[in-house]
Structures are given as C-alpha cells and as structure tokens.
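Hi Y.,

Following your request, here is the sequence exactly as I used it, all 209 residues.
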Amino acid sequence: MKTARDGYPMLGALAFMTVGGALISPYISVCLAVLFCFVLWFFRDPERSPERDLKEGDFLSPADGKVVEIEESCHEYTGRAVKIGIFMNGFDVHVNRFPTEGVVEYTKYVPGKKWFAIAPKASEENERFYVGAKCAFGKFLLVQIAGIMARRIAPRVKVNDIVPAGGRYGMIKLGSKVDIYLPPDIAPNVRIGDRVIAGHTIIGVYKGA
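Below is the corresponding structure, written out as tokens. Let me know if you'd prefer a different format.
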C-alpha cells in the first residue's frame, strides 16, 4: 500500500522515537510502535481507477466519504453552481483527487473555526482551502474544509498546474470535508447519503449525454 508523502515527516519522527524508546523501556517502544502503525494506516494512499470507462463530461469524486449536501450555492470563482459536500470520517482515505483534467486558475486559504465538518456552517466558517480550475466544461471549484479533529490542510497544487482526472492534489489530516462546485453543464450523479470513493465514483455527468 502506497503512503501519502504528507505523512513522511510524522512517520519518520515516530520511527525515530520508537527505536529510541526501546533503549528506555520496551513498553514505551511498543506503545510508539502501535501509534506508528495507526499513522501509517491513516496516510494510506491506494491507487484508484474510475468505476467505468470515463465518458466526456464525467466528474470523479474528489474525496472518500459520505455525500451530506447537494445544493445550489455561489462563489466568486464559479458564480452560481451546484455544490456537493462530502464528509470524510477518521477512517476514510484522506488523499483528495481532481474530478477531471483541469488547469488550476485560483487558490485561496481562509483561516477559520473548527466546527464539526459535517455541519452545514462548516463550509462557510471553518478553516478551508479553495482550488479553482478550468476544464472543457467550464470552471469547477474544490474546497478542503478542516473539521474539529483536523490539524492541517496540505495542498499540492499551485496556479497554472495542469492536473489529470483522478490526480492527487492534496489531503486533510483527520476527519474533514470536501465540497465540489460543478460547472453549469454537469449534473450530480449521486444522492445525499451515498458513499463515494475518490478517483473512482462518478459524481457528476454531462447534462447533454
């Protein structure tokens, strides 16, 4: 199983402490080894493929988790758009992926509170990081939202980067939420309560298909 690069510093520190702890007490070393295994599991980064051959206008889920919102919304980058909110619990893979190939045009970090990410107000009040991109069907927006247990949003992209469909663009450490704002010609392909998988589940389809 591949490990997300965002976890390398923490894993390295824990490995060092585990070895050092053995010089003090085997019990300390065992406890640290258990913590190391948990962190290693949390930063897992499995390879993903779409649930079927992609058609023109298919949008993949940007996150693992549960669909908790599908609603009309508005943002300065996209204008009015349909927003799909995906809640990630502590057991979900937290590496986030691009829904379709796009050129990054917009990034913005907003400091904020740490409400439970599943709460609707989290999208507007919590710490969050915006990534806006342009694709063949217009503009879309991804929002990584920190939850009550999240301690860091780790983006991997910058303006002018070209990211492929399913490409990794960042992660959030511990339970959190990702919102996606769809272009006007893309319709949601999921319902509230559905479980989705990043880079695998098709959450949006072209309306003209």
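The chain is about 15% helix and 40% strand.

Thanks again,
Q.
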